[in-house]
Amino acid sequence: MAVIEHLLDAGPLVAFIDRRDRDHEWSKKTLTGISPPLITCEAVLSETLFLLRADPAAPQKVATLFERGLLASRPLLDMEAGCVLALMQTYRDRPMSLADACLVRLVEKYPGAVVVTLDFDFKIYRRHRRHPIPVLSPR
């Protein structure tokens, strides 16, 4: 299994693309300082494009990150849907988004990975229900 160092959540990706986002400078500095590719999943990409829906150029901006090798996606739901849905059930009181559940499952599969996020919930979520998830966050 390949070594994956950083898993990317939607928040920093949105902020990286949207120059008006309050976390744009942090995201730009952080994401450009990480050796590519940053790894994410389809649910995070869907959330990102939904949040950037007012920007008609957003899909092309995201595609460019893939084309340049800066961003890569790992398929997850075909083989891990049961685990992902179980995580969402475990954290139903938050509630946990599909994107967050997918990232938690990825960090379980790649235990050395750090989640790059703006989301405080990753300080609450646990890998395998007991281990804190390492995060890189501005707050």
Question: How would you characterize the overall build of this protein?
Answer:
It is a single chain. The protein has 139 residues and is α/β, with parallel strands linked by helices. It has a single domain (6-136), classed as Rossmann fold (3-Layer(aba) Sandwich). The protein is 45% helix and 13% strand. It has six helices and seven strands. The strands form three sheets. Strands 1-4-7 form a three-stranded parallel β-sheet. Strand 5 and strand 6 form a beta hairpin. The longest helix is centred in the middle third of the chain and has 14 residues, at 77-90. The chain is globular and about 35 Å long. The mean pLDDT is 95.
Per CATH, the architecture is 3-Layer(aba) Sandwich
Number of domains: 1
Spatial ordering of strands, largest sheet: 1-4-7
The number of helical runs is: 6
What is the strand tally? 7
Q: What do we call the CATH homologous superfamily? A: 5'-nuclease
What are its keywords?
139 residues; alpha/beta; 6 helices; 7 strands
List the helices and strands and how they pair.
Layout: E1 6-8, H1 10-17, H2 24-32, E2 38-40, H3 42-51, H4 58-67, E3 71-73, H5 77-90, H6 98-109, E4 114-116, E5 126-127, E6 131-132, E7 135-136
Parallel strand pairs: 1-4, 2-3, 4-7
Antiparallel strand pairs: 5-6
Brief description of this entry?
The protein is of the alpha/beta class and 139 residues long. The protein is built from six helices and seven strands. A three-stranded parallel β-sheet has the order 1-4-7.
